[in-house]
Amino acid sequence: YLKRRMPPPSYETDDMVLPRVFLALDNIRKNHAGQNVALVCHAGIIYAVEAYLKTQVGYKNPTRRYRIGNLGCRWIKWDGAVFKLGRRVSLLASENLGFTGASKS
């Protein structure tokens, strides 16, 4: 599939997957109000959320995808009304994540 630049039969577009992603984010937001929560997902989900949230605030080229490396992550913040993109960070630099009690092993 990759050589032919064709999606596999089970491929989901951003429009197909984002409703489930934002439903999950909303449930987590409600159940963990005021807390920092770490979620683990495929980079494709991060790219889809980034593109959607960039579109909401008028980025010039919101669907351009910048590669996120292994153990890379993106802060997504709830401002009381909408989700907003925070900065990208590396899990290898866990002291920058802001979680209390994070292991540095």
Automatic annotation (TrEMBL):
Pfam families: His_Phos_1 (PF00300). InterPro entries: His_Pase_superF_clade-1, His_PPase_superfam. Gene3D superfamilies: Phosphoglycerate mutase-like (3.40.50.1240). This is Phosphoglycerate mutase.
